[in-house]
Amino acid sequence: MAACTHIAEFDKNAKAHTKGCEECLKIGDSWLHLRRCLTCGKVGCCDSSKNRHARAHFHEAHHPLIQSAERGEDWRWCYIDDAYL
Predict the structure, then answer these.
(1) Strand (E) positions, the chain?
(2) Cα(30)–Cα(56) distance, integer angstroms
(3) Rounded to whole angstroms, how far apart are CA atoms 41 and 16?
(4) What is the pLDDT of residues 30-50, one digit of tens each?
(5) C-alpha span between 68 and 77 (Å, rounded)
């Protein structure tokens, strides 16, 4: 497993904007699990959700770090380095 080289982009003040996937809420769709961007706080749905909005946000904004927004989960992920933090 590779080490993440983007940890400096982590913003401790990046608070979630919504309690659900921002894009799914806009289009009236559902999700399975939520991920929060650690650069800007945007909440998106996971790769197991049909819309994969968290990954789409990474590709659009180039913000590499996410954290699970699910209760009881405490992990972070870097899309670029394909690594847990």
Answers:
(1) 34-37, 43-45, 65-68, 76-78, 83-84
(2) 16
(3) 5
(4) 999 999 999 999 999 999 999
(5) 8
Sign for the pseudo-dihedral over CA of 40, 72, 20, 61: positive
How many C-beta atoms surround the C-beta of residue 57 within 10 A? 24
Q: What percent of the chain has pLDDT over 70?
A: 98
Residue count of the chain, please give it: 85
Confidence (pTM): 0.91
Confidence tier at 26 by pLDDT (50, 70, 90): very high
Phi, psi of 76 (to 5 degrees): -130, 155
Helix (H) or strand (E) holding 22: helix 22-27
